[in-house]
Amino acid sequence: MSKPYYEQRDLEDFPNIGEYAPEPGTKFFEYYTTATSAGKLTEREKALIALAVATVRHCPYCIDAYTNKCLSLGVGNDEMMEAVHVGAAMVAGDTLAHATQMRKIIKKKEM
Known about the structure:
Elements: H1 8-11, H2 22-36, H3 43-56, H4 60-72, H5 77-97, H6 99-110
Helix pairs in contact: 3-4, 3-5
């Protein structure tokens, strides 16, 4: 059996993404820290948003990081799953909204 492409230990290397481009790496982490820290939304709310986005974007590193972040903040399993369902519903809605293009083409051809 082949080794998975994504490995949990790779997540530990994330802080080193600025290795070959230190200035943008530093700027990214400044932005990332600001965006994910408590502001008008709590750290807990932002962690749930991040988990939902990570799931719909299919990022195993982020799913790992934000599942653990949510757990560390006392977020319940049911709350995390509810957030993931919100993300799933948004993806479904987005997909169906784009069917408008298909419907416009069909209607134009039917004229």
